[in-house]
TrEMBL record:
GO terms for molecular function: 4 iron, 4 sulfur cluster binding; metal ion binding; molybdopterin cofactor binding; oxidoreductase activity. PANTHER family: NADPH-FE(3+) OXIDOREDUCTASE SUBUNIT ALPHA, RESPIRATORY NITRATE REDUCTASE. This is Anaerobic selenocysteine-containing dehydrogenase. Residues 7-63 form the 4Fe-4S Mo/W bis-MGD-type domain. Keywords: 4Fe-4S, Iron, Iron-sulfur, Metal-binding, Oxidoreductase. It comes from Haloechinothrix alba. InterPro entries: MoPterin_dinucl-bd_dom (IPR006657), Mopterin_OxRdtase (IPR006656), Mopterin_OxRdtase_4Fe-4S_dom (IPR006963), Prok_molybdopt-oxidoreductase (IPR050123). SUPFAM superfamilies: Formate dehydrogenase/DMSO reductase, domains 1-3. Pfam families: Molybdop_Fe4S4, Molybdopterin, Molydop_binding. GO terms for cellular component: membrane.
Length: 724
């Protein structure tokens, strides 16, 4: 009898990455028997990657924390939720009252985006603290795309996504969707989607310093030197203008700044930029021609284009090239979604349509974006004395010690805090420095609706998942933890108001996040206005496999917020930064190696290496290196090398590979689990080394402050054997 035919099979959603695949979970009482892809899910259609099955490992992981923990030196004690909330509330209130709001810092990590509770009540709590010291993984990820959305379309969430299922030319820069399963392009099973593209006669081109898994699949690949994409993109703009290929179609009357954009690109013909980028000028010219000449074509850039020296310019130019080539807001091009719960008006209503550089960070003056500061300044904001120094830190769903530039320095700075609290299911490299850890329920114990990522899906669908398991009475969801903390921190002075607030928090605790989803669905574009065919939470509860709402549609100009309804092709902020790009062109590339990252299918940032099935096999934290570079340093495959930069040094085994561009080495991030005091028995036995012990907090994109974690100058040499 197949497990799937048993009675206890629940539909759920895998919330580990942006793809958000539909899954079925077969259970026997409180045990997971099997996780499979849900063939009825309209977006993922039965696909899952190996990480979905690890949801069972996570749920049953004996290392996963179930009770609040309080630290005393090296000792941890479990305490009740009441005690934990009281302690955290008292300490944070004390510090805030004494040293002001900015003395409490917040760091929110990547799983926030996949967590209904953190996307709702979490934002109320963390934003409500009113501190300037708000940090998140955004500034080592998609910030440049969000800035472009804000400066060009007027709203930070208006990021277009490739209409991958209808395009005939997919140009991929700095993304590896076959492994990452798509990002700002929710597209489960990219392998099948790319094969379908080839079958309908389409073409995909990858530009990447490594011949990636995506490049192997698509066939056409060109090396590009890390950090030089803005030069290539400027060349594409240059060719589009000089070869009179610009066709703005239905957007023509809304575009502003065409002339300024053309002028900005004058100095960047492909023949000039190719020496720096390493991309043959004929290839660049052909790309521009094909992007403009192919009816359904799209240029897509992702994390490799963001987290580098010119991340800001890349965010801009990616949109600009699509607009000039007639590929913005057209089928098969870069399109805006029509999600069932539309975050765009909701964010505008909440005052989060975007902001940039309203103020700078206290020590280094890096710009604010969307009310956040770049995480590259977090350590110095903790270390540097003076008014506004961070004395208490709240981390939620983040592991910045392994994930942010020069995590080793950040780690040392955490020791200087007066107080730290972490909302996290693990005692890991970051949370081991906390005074209190508040662990939420597991992914299978909570309901899910993709409030954030449905806004970036390549097809409009809606799926709501109920929890597979009920949480135990003594456990708390993320949203319950956030309400518990908010109740402690937002306490009116007046006794009567305090009583009213208490009732308010109790009411919210009874309601949970579902009413927010229900309301969002009703008010959304597929809700009430579709009459009885409209999507509602009740309908989604009945149709747990999800509802297909159709392919992406042209949304401009209606999607543009505000009265002006324009698309700014040449915002002043970007034009000012072009000077820096000119300098880059004028100066020769420095000699020596540069380091880039690499994602792996059985890994998810820093936190899934405690799943036995994901870490089995050969060690994966290896340094890929071109054969010539290895030979020059006398390094052979499998040998240990020392990798060093201004920021630090680590030892890693070398894997010689001609998939690397000469002069470039690649290491996955999220490893480095050797740190003492973490409670990660499986990860600790497969430690690897942390790439972010080598990345540099002072290497940032000067325009946006985004951490330049790709293209880091490094030296590699055979590890010195220590005598004795
Ligand atoms: N060198 C290098 N560095 C990088 C990158 C890179 O490519 N190279 N990539 C960057 C990118 S794109 C990102 S997004 C960041 C990620 O940076 P982070 O978000 O800081 O790191 P993660 O490894 O995702 O850590 C997630 C944390 O959340 C916890 N967690 C998991 N699920 C939940 C949950 O449901 N609730 C709560 N409260 N906690 C949960 C985990 O235990 C873990 O501690 O890393 C960035 N850093
Ligand atoms: N299996 C798995 N899936 C994941 C994650 C994971 O850790 N594991 N993380 C999730 C997260 S948080 C995110 S943000 C997404 C990211 O999704 P993607 O953007 O697809 O991420 P990567 O696979 O890191 O792809 C980045 C690519 O950029 C290349 N690159 C590096 N530097 C440069 C450069 O300067 N220029 C160019 N053109 N290319 C460069 C790298 O070689 C790499 O192939 O993936 C998500 N999905
Ligand atoms: S691609 Fe894998 S990790 Fe991502 S949602 Fe799907 S099954 Fe989960
Ligand atoms: Mo990310």
């Amino acid at each position: 009898m197949s497990v799937q035919s048993r009675q206890d099979v629940h539909r759920h959603t895998c919330t580990l990455c942006e793809a958000g695949c539909g899954i079925t979970v077969a259970v026997d009482r409180d045990r997971v028997l099997e996780v499979r892809g849900d063939p009825d899910d309209p977006a993922s259609r039965g696909y899952i990657c190996p990480k979905a099955t690890a949801l069972a490992d996570l749920h049953h992981d004996p290392d996963r924390l179930r009770q609040p923990m309080v630290r005393d030196g090296d000792r941890w004690t479990e305490v009740s939720w009441e005690e934990a909330f009281d302690l955290v509330g008292r300490r944070l209130r004390e510090i805030r009252e004494r040293h002001g709001r900015d003395s409490v810092g917040v760091y929110q990590g990547n799983p926030t985006a996949h967590n209904l509770g953190l996307l709702t009540y979490g934002q109320v709590l963390f934003r409500g603290l009113g501190t300037r010291n708000v940090y998140s993984a955004t500034s080592v990820d998609q910030l440049p795309h969000m800035l472009a959305a804000y400066l060009m379309f007027g709203h930070q969430l208006l990021m277009p996504v490739p209409d991958i299922d209808r395009t005939d030319l997919f140009v991929c820069l700095g993304g590896n969707p076959v492994v990452s399963n798509g990002s700002i392009m929710t597209a489960p099973d990219m392998r099948t989607r790319l094969k379908a593209l080839a079958r309908r006669g389409g073409r995909a081109v990858v530009l990447d310093p490594r011949r990636t898994e995506t490049a192997e699949l698509t066939g056409e690949h060109h090396f590009i030197r890390p950090g030089t994409d803005a030069l290539l993109l400027m060349s594409l703009v240059h060719v589009l203008f000089t070869e009179r290929l610009v066709r703005t179609g239905h957007l023509g009357e809304y575009l502003t700044g065409l002339d300024r954009l053309r002028e900005a690109a004058v100095d960047f013909p492909p023949e000039r930029t190719s020496e720096v980028t390493g991309v043959d000028p004929a290839v660049a010219r052909r790309l521009a021609r094909d992007l403009a000449g192919t009816e359904r074509a799209v240029l897509y850039g992702r994390v490799g284009t963001c987290t580098q020296e010119f991340g800001g310019l890349n965010g801009w130019l990616l949109v600009a090239v699509n607009a000039l080539a007639g590929n913005l807001d057209t089928p098969g091009g870069a399109m805006f979604t029509t999600p069932a719960v539309d975050a765009v008006p909701a964010a505008r209503w909440a005052g989060h349509a975007g902001s940039f550089a309203r103020y700078g960070s206290r020590v280094r003056g890096l710009p604010e974006f969307g009310g956040e500061l770049p995480v590259s300044v977090l350590a110095e904001e903790i270390e540097t004395p003076g008014d506004g120094r961070i004395r208490a830190l709240v981390t939620s769903a983040g592991n910045p010690v392994l994930s942010t530039p020069n995590g080793a320095r950040l780690e040392r700075s955490l020791e200087r805090l007066d107080f730290m609290v972490s909302v996290d299911p693990y005692l890991n490299e970051t949370t081991r420095h906390a005074d209190v850890i508040l662990p939420p329920t597991s992914q299978l114990e909570r309901s899910h609706y993709p409030l954030a990522l449905a806004n970036y899906a390549v097809r409009n669908t809606a799926r709501y998942s109920q929890a597979v398991f009920r949480r135990a009475a003594d456990q708390r969801h993320d949203w319950e933890i956030c309400i518990g903390l908010a109740a402690q921190l937002f306490r009116p002075a007046n006794a009567l108001l305090r009583q009213a607030a208490r009732l308010g928090w109790r009411a919210l605790r009874a309601l949970g996040p579902e009413p927010i989803v229900a309301l969002g669905l009703r008010l959304g574009p597929h809700g009430l206005r579709r009459g009885r065919h409209g999507v509602s939470l009740r309908k989604l509860r009945e149709r747990q496999q999800g509802i297909d709402l159709g392919p992406l549609e042209s949304r401009l100009p209606d999607r543009l917020p505000g009265r002006s309804s324009t698309i700014a092709l040449a915002p002043a902020e970007y034009l000012a930064d072009v000077a820096r790009l000119r300098e880059r062109l004028a100066n020769a590339s420095p000699d020596g190696l540069v380091l880039i990252g690499r994602r792996q299918l059985r890994s998810n940032n820093s936190w899934m290496h405690n799943s036995p099935r994901l870490v089995k096999g050969r060690p994966r934290c290896t340094l890929l290196m071109h054969p010539d570079d290895a030979a020059e340093r006398g390094l052979a495959d499998g040998e240990l090398a020392t990798l060093s930069s201004r920021a630090g040094r680590i030892d890693v085994p070398v894997e010689v590979s001609d998939a690397m561009m000469p002069g470039v080495v690649s290491l996955p991030h999220g490893w480095g689990h050797h740190r003492p005091g973490a409670r990660l028995s499986v990860a600790g036995a497969h430690p690897g080394a942390s790439m972010n012990d080598v990345t540099d907090e002072y290497l940032v994109d000067e325009l946006t402050g985004t951490g330049a974690i790709t293209g880091v100058p490094v030296a590699v040499h055979a590890r010195e054997t220590v005598a004795g």
